[in-house]
Every structure is written in C-alpha cells, then in structure tokens.
Amino acid sequence: MKKYLIFILLAMFTLVSIGYSQRTGEGVYKEEGENPHEGYVKSFEGTKTCLECHEKEAKDVFHSTHYQWKTDTSDVVGGSGKKLGKINVINDFCTGPWINWIFDIKNKGGKIVTNGCSKCHAGLGLMPSETMSQEQLENIDCLICHAPGYNRKVVNDNGKLRWAPADEKDVLLVRAQNVQKPKKGMCLRCHAGAGGGFNFKRGDIEAGMVKADKDLDVHLAGGLNCVDCHKSKEHRISGRGVDLAGRDNNEFRPTCDTKDCHGNKPHSKNVLNKHTASLDCTVCHIPEFAKREKTDMERNWAHLEYLKDADKYEPEIKFQKNVIPVYAWWNGRSFINDPEKPIKDTKTIFKMAKPDGSIKDTKSKIYAFKLHKANLPYDTETKRLIPVATDIAFLEGNVDKAIKEGAKRAFGKELQRYDFVKTERYMGIFHGVSPKEKALKCNDCHSEKGRIDFKALGYKGDPMKVGGRFSKK
C-alpha cells in the first residue's frame, strides 16, 4: 500500500512541479535498472545518509570548484598564486556572492524576491570553508546534481537560514533511491538560470536545452549529456571559460578536435581544415547565441527599475536575442580582475575579464565571445569595486542604501563617497552548436560587410587576399 501511495504522490508532484522543473519539463523519471539505490537507501536523512557509503566522494566534492567556488589561478595572467572564483571576485551581474549568500526575502504579496547566490551552490546554506569538517561535508547537497526532479527551498531553522528539499518525505526518499549520473536537467538547474533568470548570464546555455532540437544544439539533441564533454575525475569537472579563474580538472579539456569527437581534420574539404589552425570551431558553428531566450547584454547598477508583475526592483538590463558574437584571440589564459587591486583609470572601460592572446601567439586561436557590459559602483577613496547588497536593492529599490550596505558587508567600512565605472567582460560561447548547414559560409566573414574585423585582429586585411598569419605572403 505504501508503495502505491508513493507513486500516487509522485504523479501528483509531476503535475504541480515547481521552479526549474516547470520550465524544462524535468521530473521524476526512471531508466534501465529503476531506482538503483532502492536496495541501499531505506530512509533518507539528508547528506549524512549519503556519507555512510560515499564519504570519499563527499571529500572530493568539498575540494572541487563546484563547492569551494574558487580555484588556483595558474591560467590567470598575474594571478600570483591566489585562489579566485565566484566566492571572492566581484562580478558584473549580482556583484558579490559572499555578501548575498542566502536570503528569504519576500515582497508584500509573499512572492520570493531573492534567495541569494547560494541558490546555485552545491551546498545546503553554509558558506564553504577551506577547512574540512563533518559539518562542511554534511553541508554538501548530493541531490542537487544527482537526483532528477529535485527542488529545494530556503527554510528558517531556529534563526539560521538553510536550503531544504521542497519534496515531502516519501517523495524525497524516491529521489534519493533514484540518484544517477548527472543528466542535462541536473546541470541546467543552475547553469541555465545563473545571473538572475533563464539564460541571463552566459547566453549560450538555455533552459530549453534539456529537450533541445537540432537548431538549438545539435549535440544535446543527438543524445549527448553535459558530462559527455565535461568529463570529471574525483568530482572535478573539466572545462573553463575565459572569465573563470582556473580549471578544476587539467586532465581533460572539452575540445572538438579530440580523436573521440571530430578530430583535427573534421571537414571533407582541406581549405576548411586549414581554418582550424587559427579558428576555434565555435566561430563558424555557433553563428549566434540566445536563440530562444533573451540574454543580459548590459546591466546598469546605477539605476533600479520596478518590475510590476514581480513586485520587485532590478538593475536596468538591456536584453538581446539572436546575438552575433564578438571575436578575439585566446590562448587559454585570461586577465581576471583582482578584487583587492584598485582600478587604475576609472575614466576608461574596466576589463572584468578578457582573453590573453594575439595573432603573433602560435597558441592562440580566434574564439567567439559574449561581451557583457555593465555600470558598477566603486569606492572613490580606494578605487576598488563595491558589491551591492541585492536584498536591499531588489526589495526596496534604494541604490544608495544597497551600495553603502554592500561596502559595509564586504569591507567593514562606512562608505563616504562612491561613483560608477563602465566595465566589460568577455565570456566564451561554446554551447548551442548549430547544424552544419547553418554554419557560417565564406562570405559571412570574407566579404566587404563580413562579421569579422580582420584588421582589428591583427591581419593586414582579409586573409583570403593578403594571406593568413602562417602564410608567406
């Protein structure tokens, strides 16, 4: 009788599924070898249940970027051995995760205004510590990555906020029994909704990719999952964008030219294969991004707008769809803003993150990028960027109060004066590969109105006319 009750609950839950599942259609599902943990998990008491068998895996997760939210800076020019990441670098979206960690902020109508940046952290509400402890291990949320259909909510536990499963106990037990290798839906829970909304941040990771068609992403439509390319070892996931501080996994690099994928001569025509020496595959095969859902291209923190339907405030945001990328050389290393260093020139555009590389660097290729722009506050005394207290900004719409409170939380100081600086961030475009028939054609680049400014990239002109960087012309 109890089993029938559980499955009735599951059916009801699928119909009323909230949050991410509602947007993507992800829910409880089973595959061959249904409920692989059914014989092991008889009751689920949170992460401590997982730790009974998977303590090593939990320790691996603890050291990973997905939990620590920072890593070494060997790929950062001038990184100086620091560990940088989301947890300690000011960004141009929601500005400062460590001062906006977890909230239960609702408007007068009871709708959630913000739950904080930890909504996309692989933990249950505690800030990650560099010192491992039982408390930190039990803070790891295994289900957020491994349980299909799982949702969570912020709860107040004796005055302390934490994340807790949104499911009833019987449904949660089935979730825990059905844990599996991450599928698209599990990854997209966080990666599709970062930056405040679906596809806001990266632009090339849309919620619809959980059920992608070929026009949206040929790889995902063809049955691949994120982890097929972003391979992992000891819970260290491979892959790095230009605006990320470092790699969590140096053993694997998700590139198109591996022998298991397309190889270094992917085309039938040699003239196209010659392009791969200077062009990354993304340039031709992702001709545009934000195909279905608009993406945030510019965010102005000097002005907060009231959103009537949501009954909340947000910074002024300029959205775009079907965006043509910008193009730049990249050798795999990056310039990342160091939050402890002052801005040298506040009258020019400050680069939050940009690729290292040039036409003369043989390790460099031309890549496709999203160029995100912003207007961010900085302390006129120290010339350092200030993270904004988003709970105040989103609920009250008071820019001045939110900035001053952000400075107090981040630096422990009463801010006297601040101003705003224009910023830019380069973000690699790697997802949303189009079918080959929709890839760029010769004239898309090699024509008078072509999309690539070859002279800006260091060529003397169109390389079809003046020769490429490796030619003797």
Description:
With about 475 residues, the protein is α+β, with helices and mostly antiparallel strands. The chain has one domain (about 1-30, about 40-440). The protein has 16 helices and 15 strands. It has helices at about 1-15, 20-25, 45-65, 65-70, 135-140, 145, 170-175, 185-190, 220, 225-230, 270-275, 280-285, 390-395, 400-410, 440-445, 465; strands at about 70, 85, 105, 110-115, 150-155, 160-165, 230-235, 235, 295-305, 310-320, 325-330, 335, 350-355, 365-380, 420-430. The strands form five sheets. Strands 9, 10, 11, 12, 13, 14 and 15 form a seven-stranded mixed β-sheet that branches. Strands 1-2 form a two-stranded antiparallel sheet. Helix 13 packs antiparallel against helix 14. Residues about 1-35 have low confidence and may be disordered.
Strand and helix layout:
Blueprint: H1 2-16, H2 20-24, H3 47-63, H4 65-68, E1 71-72, E2 83-84, E3 105-106, E4 112-114, H5 134-139, H6 143-146, E5 152-157, E6 160-165, H7 169-177, H8 184-191, H9 218-221, H10 226-229, E7 232-233, E8 236-237, H11 270-273, H12 281-285, E9 295-307, E10 312-320, E11 326-330, E12 334-336, E13 350-355, E14 365-379, H13 390-396, H14 399-411, E15 418-428, H15 442-445, H16 463-466
Parallel strand pairs: 9-14, 13-15
Antiparallel strand pairs: 1-2, 3-4, 5-6, 7-8, 9-10, 11-14, 12-13, 14-15
Percent helix range? 10-25%
Task: Estimate what percentage of residues fall within beta strands.
Answer: 15-25%
Report how far the terminal alpha carbons are from each other.
Answer: 80 Å
SS content category = alpha+beta
List low-pLDDT spans. Answer: 1-33
What is the tally of helical segments? 16
How many independent structural domains? 1
Mean residue pLDDT: 91
